[in-house]
Write the structure tokens for this entry.
Amino acid sequence: MVFSSVLCFVLTKVLKIIKVEEGMTLDIYFTSVVPIGAMFAMTLWLGNTAYLYISVAFAQMLKAIMPVAVFILGVAAGLEVMSCRMFFIMSVISFGVLIASYGEINVNWIGVIYQMGGVVGEALRLIFMEIFVKKKGLRLNPISVMYYVSPCSALCLLIPWIFLERPKMDASGTWNFSPLILVLNSLCTFALNLSVFLVISHTSALTIRVAGVVKDWVVVLLSALLFADTQLTVINLFGYAVAIGGVVAYNNYKLKKEASRVLSTDVEDGTKEGSAQETHDIASSTALSSVPQK
């Protein structure tokens, strides 16, 4: 997060390659950006800690429950409306993740709890982002979001690290980590955010959603190939396939709903323009009829 903060500052303020949108105030920062940064820090901490207990593939399978968490919290926040179709899709995703967990050979429930905590943190971050955009009306590109959120997340991670993790690192002498690996991880994180920004600007949200599903499968399969502790079973893969099927149905439903909303907005705007034009024509003809004829 410190790396992202510095790099965003260099890109936006020093090199001025990307412009940061105006309109950010202290009130908006403390009421909106700080909660987003705190949830982002929670996602990073709990999600990364889960990898100490469960495999990368299984952690990725558990992440398939994300749409369920986002939808439930969205309903609680008044941003989503419960329907029979959405309830069925959420049930399919949950059932698939449950089967995938049942088929996992080495289930560590501590790791599962950490991963679920990271999922809840990410869901809350997305909910806060939606509230932030709808109520504050400030739309930021991903680089601008990282510019504002990264310093806050870094601070939220630093404070508990000082009291909880640093004493363990001092006691076990685990300070001899490779700076190269740390820098490469930081570059990958920043490249991810930049690539999302570029893909959205050149394609659409549909491309991001499809690419996300493909990415999930690639992570699972590469994890099985690269790491010896990952053993995928038939039940494992079947459950994950069911969950991914539910995620695809969820994405399709959300995209159709968004397209319908945009279409209805365009029709409404067209109707308003037509009514305004009709009113203008009537006013013009009335004005012409009132002109004295020579």
Q: What stands out?
A: The chain has ten helices and no strands. Residues 234-289 form the longest helix (56 residues).
